Amino acid sequence: MTSEILIRGGLLVTDQSRRCGDLLCRDGVIAAIGQELDVSPAASVIDASGCFVVPGGIDPHTHMELPMMGTVVADDFASGTAAAAAGGTTTILDFVGPDRGQSPLDALASWRAKAAKAVIDYGFHMTVSWWGDGFAEAMPALVGQGVSSFKFFLAYKGGLMLSDEAILQAFERCRALGALPQMHAENGEIVAYLQRRLKAQGVTGPKGHAASRPPMCEGEATERAIAMAEAVGVPLYVVHVSAAEAAQAIKRGRQRGVRVFGETLPGFLGIDDRVYDDPDFDIAAGHVMSPPYRPAGHQEALWAAIADGTLSVTGTDHCCFTRAQKRLGLDDYTRIPNGCGGVGDRLNILWHLGVAAGCLSPESFVALTSGNAARLFNLWPRKGSLAIGADADIAIIDPARSITISARTQHQNTDFSVWEGRRLAGSVVHTIAGGRHLWADGDLRTAPGAGRYLPRQPFGPAFVTPAHATGP
Ligand code: URP
Ligand code: ZN
Ligand code: ZN
Q1: Is the beta carbon of 63 within 6 A of some atom in ligand 1?
Q2: Residues within 5 Å of ion ligand 2 by Cβ?
Q3: Does residue 94 have its Cβ closer than 6 Å to ligand 1?
Q4: Contact of 24 with 13, CB cutoff 8 Å
Q5: 4-54+386-399+426-444, what's its fold?
Q6: Ligand 1 atom closest to 289 (CA)
Q7: Ligand 1 pocket, 317 CB below 6 A?
């Protein structure tokens, strides 16, 4: 049976265009765009007058159901993707996390099993959590199964951190396979040193988290990661950029022709490190993530880096824990599970901080929330566009519908929100994913298992030489 949804009379915005009109979704794809489109009597009709109709959000950085620091992330693929849908996100790219020594192919199989309950489409990056022949030999098969991006860590000494030598070897492997390397850029040696020093000084609370990971740690590691990518001749994607120093390193790299791309998070654009001064442990610990929120001033630097194209993608690094989970580090901040939520808030926050505040055009908003991620991670134009034949993944934003974020009303599976009490000008009022109307004016109608796995081809646009580049 044919299913049709007509979105009537909205402003249709992509990262390159805007026009008023109707958009017809039929059987999961965008079937027509025009004026006063005819539909069958059985079609459902959404009145989008006064609203912005944009490609569904792509969150290229989530962690659902991830075992971490003695616990497991609070959102699984069903709850986390439902929360995403309630905020206009219709695709996530999650990180497969092999245990140390575990076959990455086995880890991918286990992530695919966990993700089978997702309500929206999903793909995977692979965390290179250890390095050796076994990992290197598995990489072609991983790429063959649609995992064409690999994340490396310069932080977490004694855990995920790899040596520069290992990273250079792995980057070479990525280059040969057309896979995009990603970097968590913090200098793990300095962090470990500062943690020891703070411990000797008796610092045990969440403030120590930020103190042990200063902005220069991120700046140095970003600079080094770019230099390694440059030496190998492979593009690089720097995840969760939080510090001015890191953005400057990316800008310098791009200026000398390195194909380096920066991702930032809404939280780094709108929250500063005063959160760690809160006398309530739950609030300070609720903001513990790596890298940490930065002192006032860095947020403006990141906005400037968005404006000049240094930072071209936003994700959320959704990795949420409950207050009870964060209390694992009540006596020692190094034991607080690292991570914050946000998969359901990204579009609403960026609309508010960006478009409503006059800092972003609607087109730039689309570039930052879906278009550039689709291009870099080889999902374009199936995702991140409003092209005929593209997946019917749509978010409808009503600029007049204010909301106030609260942990009590959010759909993320946690009792904490870094955005608690924020009143936003405008919000996502409808989400359609794969032609299914999942979020309808406050009504969340998700079906676990409806999401599809998105295998991604290697040699995405980031590998195209700059002269012919079509990507961001
Ligand atoms: O603190 C964070 N960011 N947790 C998630 C893991 C990561 O490094 O992205
Ligand atoms: Zn990271
Ligand atoms: Zn992450």
Answers
A1: yes
A2: 184
A3: no
A4: no
A5: Urease, subunit C; domain 1 (2.30.40)
A6: 1
A7: yes
Query: What spacing in Å lies between the alpha carbon of 108 and ligand 2's midpoint?
Result: 18
Q: How far is the CA of 247 from the centre of ligand 1 (A)?
A: 18
Q: What is the topology classification, in CATH, of domain 57-381+455-463?
A: TIM Barrel (3.20.20)
Query: Considering only CA atoms, which of 410, 336, 339, 452 is closest in space to residue 77?
Result: 452
Q: How far is the CA of 340 from the centre of ligand 1 (A)?
A: 8
Q: How far is the CA of 288 from the centre of ligand 1 (A)?
A: 10
Q: What is the pLDDT of residues 379-436, one digit of tens each?
A: 999 999 999 999 999 999 999 999 999 999 999 999 999 999 999 999 999 999 999 9
Cα of 240 vs centre of ligand 2, distance in Å, is 7
pLDDT (tens digit per residue) in 155-190: 999 999 999 999 999 999 999 999 999 999 999 999
Question: Which ligand lies nearest to the CA atom of residue 288 in the structure?
Answer: 1
Give, as one character, the DSSP assignment of residue 15: S
Do 346 and 59 contact (CB within 8 A), yes or no? yes
Task: Check whether the bond before 235 is cis (ω within 30° of 0).
Answer: no
CA-CA-CA-CA torsion sign (79, 393, 404, 367): positive
331 token code pair: 């006596």
For residue 226, the tally of other CB atoms under 10 A from its CB is: 24
Q: Which residue's CA is the nearest one to ligand 1's atom 3?
A: 290
Domain ranges of the chain: 4-54+386-399+426-444, 57-381+455-463
Closest CA relative to residue 231, chosen from 261, 258, 262: 258
CA-proximal residue: ligand 1, atom 6 (nearest): 339
What gap in Å lies between CA 313 and CA 119, rounded to an integer?
23
How many angstroms separate the Cα of 194 from the Cα of each of 225, 266, 287, 386, 417? Answer: 21, 27, 19, 48, 28
- Whether 74 and 414 have beta carbons less than 8 Å apart is answered as yes
Helix (H) or strand (E) holding 18: strand 18-26
Ligand 2 center–CA 156 separation, angstroms: 10
pTM of the model: 0.98
Residues in the chain: 472
DSSP state for residue 342 in the 8-state scheme: -
Q: Find out whether the beta carbon of 184 lies less than 6 Å from any atom of ligand 1.
A: yes
